[in-house]
Write a structure and sequence with these properties.
single chain; alpha/beta; Rossmann fold; 2 domains; 6-stranded parallel β-sheet; 20 strands; binds adenosine-5'-diphosphate; binds alpha-D-glucopyranose
Length: 485
């Protein structure tokens, strides 16, 4: 019998994306289907999906699709499409009042209501479909009340009697915490909200905490991060709760969708190349220079950043290195958006750099691909990193990563100097310290001058295989464990 899974995510490539969660949600279900899982995906219908160039159809689920949230009745509709032409159906829950906004995630007063609605609507749809599935796979706080709801306000429904829940934590830095006054709209039972209780976190409601306590299995997106979040420095205050669930907690490294992110297949870059034909990479370097306005110079290394500009990604380390980047014998391209203090730091850096540093504030997928293909070195000194995808993309593109040893970065990048037998694929530093970061960059810049060694480092990275298949098999095992098999 095929395993039946409903996969729920607040963002899914290509329909919606703010970060790596979307990449995962757009790829893992397809890989699971290839392993024989009968899987459907659920996500909100954002305004940008309606405005985008996507094919989807309205699904007739009968009249009167309504969900009550805080005593108000919210009408919704259901649409469906296919994940990238594959046989995986993705369902969109459409409630314009909640999801037709400028951003997917907001600071609006009804942020809790938006995702309470989404989760209740998902359960409503499953009920209307009479979906008697094995696993509901939830992702991050936006979906983490589902296990709680199934065991409380929907416990009456025998449909879900044998359904188990798997909770993937992509980032414990975002927990979905809301003021206690929101309790009635969340339908969290007052008996679960008391100091140190399952829903309570320093006087607030915490969606992620309930996910951790009520899911059957919990995992994070790398083995190292799974260990790190059991310690206070990484847990955002939830290490005690995670320890209670330690035997059900594991780490599964994300895979990468090489049909989108590999220099051989990438349709968004000017020239395709491979580890056999690395020499062609320079054509992309030229294109990157003309796209960004950098002065092309074949032997000047181009360093790159593609990132949300937030403290998680280690940008505080850059703040002390203004002169270092101005004086470096290298160019730098930055693509990202986020906190004002980092955006203005990079703008200033570009301003004073006399053309050697170019900064693009914003989100631009095509440019992200061109940067991966055209740059020489990728900088990712994260403070913490659950998995991280850009360093894995960089390995495949021969764009040597310089990373801090944490989370998924530690599990994917091997330092050239520290790894025997010329097996290293990048540069790694340990302590969260700007001097150490600068040293790692300097090591990379020095090796860049030695063409033989540099090619070796690039090839080692390009030959790594982080395709989804391996990881998807581990998810399948996790599903089976959740089912007690
Ligand atoms: P996170 O999810 O924490 O942001 P990941 O490394 O897992 O980090 O994933 C980030 C994803 O978002 C990658 O696919 C990356 O290419 C993409 N990305 C981040 N910032 C931008 C940007 N400014 N423009 C285009 N893509 C971006
Ligand atoms: C989160 C993490 C990132 C991870 C991504 C996908 O956004 O910050 O490290 O790669 O989720 O799991």
């Amino acid at each position: 019998m095929k395993l039946k899974v409903a996969f729920v995510s607040s963002e899914v490539v290509p329909f919606s994306k703010t970060g790596g969660l979307a990449d995962v949600a757009g790829a893992l279900p397809i890989e699971l289907r290839k392993l024989g899982v009968e899987i459907i995906v659920f996500t909100p219908f954002y305004k940008s999906i309606e405005e985008g160039d996507f094919l989807y159809a309205r699904i007739d689920m009968g009249d009167n699709l309504k969900i009550s949230v805080g005593g108000r009745e919210i009408d919704y509709r259901l649409y469906a499409s296919l994940l990238r032409g594959d046989r995986v159906t993705i369902y969109f829950i459409d409630a314009p009042e909640y999801f037709h906004r400028k951003e997917f995630y907001t600071q609006d007063d009804d942020e809790a209501e938006r995702f309470v609605f989404f989760q209740k609507a998902l359960i409503d749809v499953l009920q209307r479909m009479q979906w008697k599935g094995d696993i509901i796979h939830i992702n991050d706080w936006q979906t983490s009340l589902i296990p709680y709801y199934l065991k409380t306000i929907y416990a009456w429904d025998k449909l879900f009697e044998n359904t188990k829940t798997v909770f993937t934590i992509h980032n414990i830095g975002y927990q979905g915490t809301f003021p206690a006054e929101k309790l009635p709209v969340t339908e969290i039972l007052p008996e679960h909200f008391y100091p140190t209780g399952p829903a309570e976190f320093y006087g607030k409601i915490n969606f992620m905490k309930l996910g951790i306590l009520f899911s059957d299995k919990i995992n994070t997106v790398s083995e190292t991060y799974a260990k790190e979040i059991l310690t206070p420095a990484f847990s955002g205050g939830l290490d005690g709760v995670l320890k209670q669930r330690e035997k059900d907690l594991s780490g599964i490294l994300n895979g990468v969708d090489y049909s989108q992110w590999s220099p051989q297949k990438d349709t968004l870059i000017p020239v395709n190349y491979s580890s056999q034909k690395i020499a062609r990479k320079v054509e992309n370097k030229k294109a990157l220079a003309s796209e960004t306005g950098l002065k092309f110079s074949e032997n000047t290394p181009v360093m790159a950043i593609i990132s949300r500009l937030v403290s998680q990604k280690g940008f505080d380390l850059f703040l002390d290195l203004f002169d270092f980047f101005i004086e470096a014998d290298a160019q730098l391209v930055v693509l990202g958006s986020g906190d004002e203090k980092y955006e203005s730091f990079f703008r200033k850096l570009a301003f004073y750099s006399e053309g050697n540093i170019k900064v693009h504030i914003g989100y631009n997928n095509k440019l992200a691909h061109l940067i991966e293909a055209g740059a020489d070195i990728f900088l990712m000194p994260s403070l913490y990193e659950p998995c991280g995808l850009n360093q894995i993309y960089s390995l495949k593109y021969g764009t040597v990563p310089v990373v801090r040893k944490t989370g998924g970065l530690a599990d994917t990048v091997k330092d050239w100097d520290e790894t025997p037998d010329e097996k290293g694929n990048g540069f790694v530093f340990g302590k969260f310290d700007s001097r150490e970061f600068a040293n790692a960059i300097e090591r990379a810049l020095n090796y860049y001058k030695d063409k033989r060694i540099w090619k070796k480092i690039q090839r080692n990275g390009m030959r790594e295989d982080f395709s989804w298949r391996k990881s998807a098999k581990k998810y399948l095992e996790l599903y089976n464990k959740a089912l007690g098999k």
